[in-house]
Amino acid sequence: MILPIVAYGDPVLKKKSTDITKEYPNLDMLLENMFETMYNAFGVGLAAPQIGLPIRLFLVDTTPFSEDEELSEDEQNALKDFKRVFINAKIIKEEGDEWAFNEGCLSIPDVREDVFRKPKITVEYVDEHFKKHTEVFEGLIARVIQHEYDHIEGILFTDKLSSLKKRLIKGKLNNISKGKINVDYRMRFPDQKKKR
Q1: Cα–chain-centroid distance for residue 17?
Q2: Residue 160 in domain
Q3: What's the number of domains the chain is made of?
Q4: In this structure, is residue 195 part of a structural domain?
Q5: Per the domain annotation, does 87 fall within a domain?
Q6: Quick check: helix, strand or coil at residue 186?
Q7: What average pLDDT does the structure give for the chain?
Q8: Is the pTM of this model over 0.90?
Q9: 102, CA 20 to 30 Å: which among 90, 113, 158, 168?
Q10: 148 is catalytic
């Protein structure tokens, strides 16, 4: 089932999420719905707060990035079929020199800005079977994970922009929160409390 994606301005997006246990109700169905919602909106990641749930859960599928011809064959292969569920994730290490990449967010449609992040991260998490993992990720995969991880920490990519950039996009952000935007996927707007 395709769920509405919560738009910028909803308080759930600024809330630090809480851990869940394997007894979380209907987790399999929730994951299925989240993947379906993400694919329907042509996203490469989706965090639970984006569907209104303040829990430490996000998923990633970087396959669409693997078609970028500017990337090396090794990078394309790493991104191809990288599909993961992250539950109760914790980034325990960030390494390297920060690099800029143009990011967008399903909760903030039509806003894209360069965001600086470290290229290499170490993440502790459990998967959908509650099996524990500690893994190192690099490049675009690390970036998508960091973006989704920020969501469960109550941080949006727009929070990482300079004050000048924030002022420049303020009008757009206000319009998004009021639902004054055309999107081709279902959204829930805080100022209207209506679904599209």
Answers
A1: 13
A2: yes
A3: 1
A4: no
A5: yes
A6: coil
A7: 94
A8: yes
A9: 90
A10: yes
What are 152-172's pLDDT values in tens digits? 999 999 999 999 999 999 999
Which bin fits 59, alpha (ψ -120 to 50), beta or left (φ > 0)?
beta
Judged by phi (left if over 0) then psi (alpha if -120 to 50, else beta), residue 179 lies in: left
Backbone region of residue 96 per phi and psi (left: phi > 0; alpha: psi in -120 to 50; beta: other values)? left
Cβ contact 159:166 at 8 Å: no
Its domain, for residue 168, covers: 5-184
Structure tokens at 28: 């399999």
If DSSP codes are grouped into helix, strand and coil, which group holds residue 181?
coil
**Torsion angle of the four alpha carbons 67, 71, 72, 74, in this order, in degrees rounded to the nearest 10:** -60
- For 195, the token pair is 């679904």
pLDDT tier at 96, thresholds 50, 70, 90: very high
CATH code (residue 35): 3.90.45.10
Q: Please tell me the predicted confidence (pLDDT) of residue 192.
A: 58
What's at 108, amino acid-wise?
I
Pairwise CA distance, residues 97 & 106, whole Å: 27
In sequence order, which residues have a C-beta less than 8 Å from that of residue 108 and are 6 or more positions away?
Answer: 7, 8, 156, 157, 158, 173, 176
The pLDDT of residue 68 is: 86
Token pair for residue 91?
Answer: 């980034």
d(CA 188, CA 49): 12
Instruction: Given the residues 32, 128, 148, 153, select the one marked as catalytic.
Output: 148
| β-bridge mates for residue 97, sequence order | none
